[in-house]
Design goal:
phosphoprotein; Nicotinate phosphoribosyltransferase; globular; Aldolase_TIM; single chain; alpha/beta; binds adenosine-5'-triphosphate; binds 1-O-pyrophosphono-5-O-phosphono-alpha-D-ribofuranose; nicotinate phosphoribosyltransferase
Length: 465
């Protein structure tokens, strides 16, 4: 997508002009994190980093952006600065596809304050949305077990969000998408069946199936619920499957899009098998989500492939991930944001996050946040409850934030969507089951080093007096 630097909120530019005019232009550190897991779940899947790095490397204001800003009262010298604007900062980040948890930095930006401020909205827009959708996809994957998952959501996505949703769905564990543009741009598998309109246009379902199978015999999936699934659609599909066999071809599948999907899939499987068509797959769609798929599995539904649209690409029912971007250092000095709500008090300093790994190589269930310059963190303390602490000296510490961009240029190789999806799968395999369940998942611990907690509390006291 063609994104320019004007893809931001006006207040970022207004603040940037003040920084520019008053030379209040020191180096800063901003943290990206979120406060609550979406869907009342126990984790999130971090997504969107590759898109963010690509966009930042090429970010510029266009001449029409500059003209628009001139008309909105921005002064000449600042507009001249914006004409040459490039993001030249550093980014340290978790790996895209990793399993992440609330309140700990997922990514840190270190840059001149003007640049860091201008990119805030863009960064949040990309990371919040893709992380939300990758997390939803991961939950759907958890329910579907080894079933094939196809994204069919573009028509229901929030405008151009569908483009990014299809990418994030693959990262979270989907196998393919109906979205042609996303499949082309991200080199992800494109797939699809047929719509009711195709059959309706013929009037005669059998004729419609025959034409489709003749012209598109490869990966042919016939939609069998337009008139009556078991009495009309399935017998017609079996007739066409037999005709395909006589031509040396194979029908790939039939799709169910209404009714009781457990009952219909079981009946369909039996009837197909009895007709000697055990290889024909059953695809199901119709407002699926992680809960419906879990229930279908529990009912013994015989579904090989699940097509999921609306609930996936809109991140239903959450609609948005509340990821934030908070200032933690200005010119090497720690900065904090206070709040009556303690969970909203920010963490000062440039930081590192360590994941605790147990003796089996699995996630122990705790991430510790320390000041970047600190030596090994031997004990992590609860951010707000001083009675709670954990000795982590014997556990393996995996540092999570790695340098991905320096002086505006990426310093890590490009990763394809399928590489990121593979990585995400390997990380999910290390997360114990109790964090994955939908109801009352186990709460993953986030702790601070003693030093970070002391520094934060000192700053809180300073600002309160
Ligand atoms: N056996 C089942 N167990 C649980 N949920 C199911 C089962 N079968 C279907 N569903 C889900 O129930 C909902 C059914 O919705 P609805 O009643 O609107 O569909 P329908 O009437 O069968 O189809 P349509 O309205 O598209 O013609 C969908 O979300 C579907 O995925
Ligand atoms: O249900 P979703 O998860 O969003 O999946 C995509 C849906 O989109 C298509 O039909 P559409 O909804 O356009 O029409 P229909 O409901 O009349 O089949 C398709 O047949 C699926 O049912
Ligand atoms: O290929 C399909 O079957 C499809 C694609 C988009 C939406 N509904 C169905």
């Amino acid at each position: 997508m063609n994104i320019t630097a004007a893809y931001t909120d006006l207040y970022q530019l207004t603040m940037a002009q003040v920084y520019f005019s008053t030379k209040h232009d020191g180096r800063v550190v901003f943290d990206y994190y979120y406060r609550n897991n979406p869907f009342d779940g126990g984790y999130s899947i971090f997504a969107g980093l590759e898109d963010l790095l690509d966009i930042l490397e090429n970010l510029k204001f266009s001449s029409s952006d500059l003209l628009f800003l001139e008309q909105h009262g921005f002064e000449r010298a600042f507009l001249d600065y914006l004409r040459d604007f490039r993001f030249q900062g550093n980014i340290r980040s978790s790996k895209e596809g990793d399993v992440v948890f609330p309140t700990r930095p997922i990514l840190q930006v270190e840059a001149n304050i003007i640049e860091a401020q201008i990119i805030e909205t863009l960064l949040l827009n990309i990371l919040n949305f893709q992380t939300l959708i990758a997390t939803k996809a991961s939950r759907i994957r958890h329910s579907a077990k080894d079933g094939v998952l196809l994204d069919m959501g573009l028509r229901r996505a929030h405008a151009t969000g569908g483009y990014y949703a299809s990418r994030a769905a693959i990262i979270g564990g989907f196998d393919g998408t109906s979205n042609v543009k996303a499949a082309e741009a991200y080199n992800i598998p494109a797939s699809g069946t047929m719509a009711h309109s195709f059959i309706q246009s013929y009037g005669d379902e059998l004729e419609a199936f025959r034409d489709f199978a003749k012209v598109r015999p490869k990966n042919c999936v016939l939609l069998i619920d337009t008139y009556n699934t078991l009495k009309i659609g399935l017998p017609n599909a079996i007739t066409v499957a037999k005709e395909m066999e006589s031509r040396g071809e194979q029908l790939m599948g039939v799709r169910l899009d209404s009714g009781d999907l457990a009952y219909l899939s079981k009946r369909t499987r039996t009837i197909l098998d009895e007709a000697g068509l055990g290889y024909v797959k059953i695809v199901a769609s119709n407002q699926l989500d992680e809960y419906v798929i879990k229930s279908l599995k529990e009912q013994g539904a015989k579904i090989d492939i699940f097509g999921v649209g609306t609930n996936l690409v809109t991140g239903k029912p959450d609609a948005s991930l509340g990821g934030v971007y908070k200032l933690s250092e200005y010119k090497g000095e720690p900065r904090i944001k206070l709040s009556e709500n303690i969970i909203k008090v920010s963490l000062p300093y440039k930081k590192q996050v360590y994941r605790m790994i147990d003796q089996n190589g699995l996630f122990y269930g705790a991430d510790a946040v320390g000041i970047y310059s600190e030596d090994k963190v031997n004990e992590m303390v609860h951010p707000f409850d001083s009675t709670k602490n954990l000795d982590i000296s014997a556990l393996k510490h995996e540092p999570l934030l790695e340098s991905v961009m320096e002086n505006g240029k990426r310093v890590v190789p490009f990763r394809t969507v399928s590489e990121i999806a593979e990585y995400s799968k390997s990380r999910m395999a290390k997360l114990p089951e109790e964090y994955k369940r939908f109801q009352n998942p186990h709460i993953y611990k986030i702790g601070l080093s003693n030093k970070l907690k002391q520094e934060r509390d000192t700053l809180v006291r300073q600002h309160k007096t």
